[in-house]
Write a structure and sequence with these properties.
The protein is an alpha/beta fold. It has a single domain, classed as 2-enoyl-CoA Hydratase, Chain A, domain 1. The protein contains ten helices and ten strands. The strands form two sheets. Strands 1, 2, 4, 5, 6, 7, 8 and 9 form an eight-stranded mixed β-sheet that branches. Strands 3-10 form a two-stranded antiparallel sheet. Strand 4, helix 4 and strand 5 form a beta-alpha-beta unit. Helix 2 runs parallel beside helix 3. The protein is extended, with a radius of gyration of 30 Å.
């Protein structure tokens, strides 16, 4: 009797034990389908571009203080046979002379050695070193209100001699070489020091002028007339032949596609920026103004006055 009741009870409990198992299976099945959908959405754009010719977008934003990342990016796209054109999106007031020159020459190499079309697209600002880089491209587009030009060189030095005297601190210098402490913040600048530094500035300025003349197929004399550090709008730069066309980023991509022989709407690829918790934290606390490092010595800058 007891055995019969026990069997009946087990038969009644069996469906109840199986019910949670079926529910778990349904939940896992739904989760799996959702995961496949999400994965498909993530991978679909990349899969759609497999084997397709494309345009690469390289962003040059903020002060130009280091060229390595941009040079490596340009070179990588130059070596990619599927990349037919590169669009440089420049939104920069310029920066160091050497980094600007290194990016300029990387752009020239990718055009001459790899046969890539390079189009520069100017954002809010593409001045001084930013314009220097743009001049290396095949074609330049600017918005009518873009700030550009500023063809010149600047070196800014501080002098704290009076402050040191007020707080009773003396600076002692031991040097070999007459001009070794030229530009020192702890003493007045002599006329001879100024002449030496001015010759350096003039040479860097001449390099800028020649780079623009070469890149834009202009006479040096024509560039010299504009190379007094003045800032131009995109419209003024176009009138002065420093810019080829007025338009935004979309127009630059369209122009790059046409110049490189791509038809239709080509895919545009861009190297994702690595997440930096430090940059995110600084941006959250202080906004996204570009960081400006402290320079302890003299630095030549292709930089629009900030």
């Amino acid at each position: 009797m007891n055995d019969g009741r026990l069997a009946e009870r087990m038969d009644e409990e069996q469906p109840r034990r199986n019910a949670p198992r079926w529910r778990r299976r349904v939940v896992w099945a739904v989760a799996g389908v959702a995961g496949l959908v999400i994965l498909g959405n993530v991978l679909a754009p990349d899969l759609a571009m497999v084997g397709r010719e494309r345009i690469a977008l390289v962003r040059i934003e903020g002060p130009i203080l280091n060229s390595r990342a941009t040079v490596d990016e340009v070179k990588a796209y130059g070596d990619d046979p599927l990349v037919k054109a590169i669009v440089l999106r420049i939104d920069s007031p310029g920066g160091g002379v050497a980094p600007s020159q290194e990016i300029y020459h990387a752009v020239r190499r990718v055009r001459e050695d790899n046969g890539k079309t390079v189009v520069a697209s100017m954002g809010s600002v593409a001045a001084s070193g930013g314009y220097y880089i743009a001049a290396a491209s095949d074609h330049i587009l600017a918005n009518p209100g873009t700030l550009t030009g500023s063809i010149g060189v600047i070196m800014q030095l501080a002098n704290v001699e009076t402050l040191m005297d007020n707080i009773g601190v003396k600076n002692i210098v031991i040097k070999s070489g007459r001009y070794k402490d030229t530009g020192s913040p702890f003493r007045p600048m002599a006329d001879e020091d100024r002449r030496v530094l001015q010759s350096v500035m003039d040479d860097a300025h001449r390099q800028f002028i020649e780079a623009v003349a070469d890149g834009r197929s202009l006479d040096v004399a024509d560039v010299e007339r504009l190379a007094d550090g003045r800032v131009l709008t995109g419209q003024q730069a176009k009138d002065a032949r420093l810019v080829d066309e007025l338009g935004g980023l979309h127009a630059a991509v369209t122009r790059a596609a046409a110049m490189s022989g791509l038809t239709g709407v080509p895919p545009v690829v861009e190297t994702p920026r690595q997440f930096s918790f430090r940059d995110w934290l600084i941006g959250s606390l202080f906004g996204h103004a570009p960081a400006w490092p402290m320079h302890t010595g003299m630095t030549l800058m292709y930089l629009m006055a900030l």
